[in-house]
Amino acid sequence: MRLLEADLIAGVVKRLCIEANRNLPSPVKDCIRQARKNETWPPAQDTLDKIIENFEIASRRKVPICQDTGMACVFLEIGQDIHIEGDLYAAVNEGVRQGYREGRLRNSVVGDPLERKNTGDNTPAMIYTEYTRGDKVTVTVAPKGFGSENMSRLRMLKPSDGVDGVIDFVVSVVEEAGPNPCPPVVVGVGIGGAFDKAALLAKKALLRPPGIRNKQEYYAKLETTILEKINSLGIGPQGFGGAVTALSVAIETLPTHIAGLPCAVNINCHVSRHATEVL
Is 197:255 a contact under the CB 8 Å cutoff? Predict the structure, then answer.
């Protein structure tokens, strides 16, 4: 049994909060650059040029890519052969606290959803844990801005709605969102499980690099179909029209009940931020 101090996780979370907010993952950058090459509408070309200039400046000057530095969503994959000494959740929140302070990142979390008083340190984080084999801990920090989070939706479809119902729902969510989530967007889709699991699947789907398809051929083709339909909407970068409304669509699935077809759509803006470290 491997022992790991919770304080080490705090340090990792701190670094990842800063890194994720300053540097887009390379696959996301590459996808945006490719979108610029594919775009033919001048206003959309100009918008994509500004998006590229923005993330290049952020990386070079070590400043946030976006003023909304997000709610810290922290994914933990914990090996079953490891024992964490100390309070894991307290360590994660301490890492967020330090990262947002030292990185001079905006604090965007309120302690109560109705009283709306800012906690002042961007805690608590949204923490998702999963147990895996081995003795490693994989930490992923994905700061989630709410311009895109607010455009996300979940619907309990009927089994009779089938694949066409899923396609129509996902495309309608993006269409309804329009320019609000700062397109071009990344679309995470969760299908199956129960009400809550579908939403988590959709959020985890956003962590998959753009262009990497589902391992199952059926869902890989479905991702392509939905992406094509979304890009035919003509919303375009920042809503100015064009061929690129979405950079990618990623679908994750789980078994579900015979009477249900849960489907969740979690939208991310083009600033699809996340950073990972393995301990």
Answer: no
